[in-house]
């Protein structure tokens, strides 16, 4: 929703604050602007109206509204909800809570002034952000499942392709490309679970907590929880209005997800470079140079990598705001929403861009195959000696010598005959020749890169993805 375009800010002159009675003078204009949060918390308008609809009914049930007042209030709030994307805000609207109350009162008269009975903005903002977060998490989880589908499709498309895997950016051992792809799936699965756990802990109703010590009226909090779709109600009013753990946890989950995307973005950026040439990004997710006509830049992946810093910064932002903050509510907590919204929006965009980039890139199987250097099989040579009875540390030393001398002779391990290998150790079998296919087959244990193991991982991943899609 494009809030900045659809909402209008009117300036009808001086507007009386709803809390003005305590003050003789008015805010300095700089303070007015500094204090105002409507420019960003208007994004919570639907949640704020939904919360007010439930609260109006609770007021009626507590005999604080007449039947006529209840009807006016419910009708007025429903009309506001229908117009939520085009409500006329004014310069005097300090935040979304006061804006909704003002608009309602203008439309239904003095009955609107009763809406805030026994209620504080401290609990309102907690209700609104929890409602918004529960909805947003499901949106992000859907984005994650779409990316996981793309990962599985890429894994299925190349079941036998062998590639080098790396440690320390040095080629280490051969793995199936499908095994590499599935490693991203299982990272994303943990991300999905983190968001799900965060949503569970956000699913608590704070309404009824008042400003800090609970409402002075006998509100039916169980009714409010059911009406707003919360599983539980808060146990302690002080904690309910002070708590922002659920936002910190959400941004933590966002940051970890972005770190995962950033790491794979870095891999693909390297794999797309001339030194590797394993992949080529589609034109749809690449850009050119303003000066160099030959360039095709992986800007989609570089931006994902770069935007991870933005999301990590948002997590640090909210943790820093919370650090040392005395109970209960303090205006510092107004700083939580810009980080929240920006973090969610950034993750949403990055999931879509990364998924599109991965789905449309082209694999250069010839270059991948050409990169399979014989040294990738060094561990297999050592394993062969271990199977013949040599202690592993001794086998490691023998193969290390083979690698060192083969490098000096500019000879690949793949070119070495069994007779040459036996010159280093008579324990090498006759007619033994290391191969990438044999190396892959040896690693068919659960979780390994063997074809049967990868097939099992694919089945597991598909089953788990179906369950995740049913939830999100």
Compute the separation of the termini in Å: 21 Å
Can you tell me the CATH architecture of the largest domain? Up-down Bundle
**Assembly category:** single chain
Total number of distinct structural domains: 3
Mean pLDDT, to the nearest integer, reads 94
CATH class of the largest domain: Mainly Alpha
Strand order of the largest sheet: 1-2
Q: What is the N-to-C order of secondary-structure elements (H for helix, E for strand)?
A: HEHHHHEHHEEHEHEHHEHHEHHHHHH
Rg, Å, rounded: 30 Å
Overall 3D form: elongated
Record field, number of beta strands: 8
Number of helices: 19
Q: What name is given to the CATH topology of the largest domain? A: Fumarase C, Chain A, domain 2
Helix content: 55-70%
The largest β sheet comes out as:
2 strands, parallel
Question: How would you name the CATH homologous superfamily of the largest domain?
Answer: Fumarase/aspartase (Central domain)
Q: Assess the beta-strand content as a share of residues.
A: 5-15%
Ranges where pLDDT stays below 50 over 5 or more residues in a row are 1-14
Features:
Fumarase C, Chain B, domain 1; 472 residues; mainly alpha; two-stranded antiparallel ribbon; two-stranded parallel sheet; Fumarase C, Chain A, domain 2; Ribonucleotide Reductase Protein R1, domain 1; disordered N terminus
Structure description:
By secondary structure, the chain is mainly alpha-helical. The protein has 3 domains: 115 residues, Fumarase/aspartase (N-terminal domain) (Fumarase C, Chain B, domain 1, Orthogonal Bundle); 208 residues, Up-down Bundle (Fumarase C, Chain A, domain 2), CATH 1.20.200; 98 residues, Ribonucleotide Reductase Protein R1, domain 1 (Orthogonal Bundle), CATH 1.10.40.30. The protein is 60% helix and 6% strand. It contains 19 helices and 8 strands. Strands 1-2 form a two-stranded parallel ribbon. It has a two-stranded antiparallel sheet with strand order 3-4. Strands 5-6 form a two-stranded parallel sheet. Strand 5, helix 9 and strand 6 form a beta-alpha-beta unit. Helix 4 packs antiparallel against helix 9, helix 7 runs parallel beside helix 13 and helix 7 runs antiparallel to helix 19.
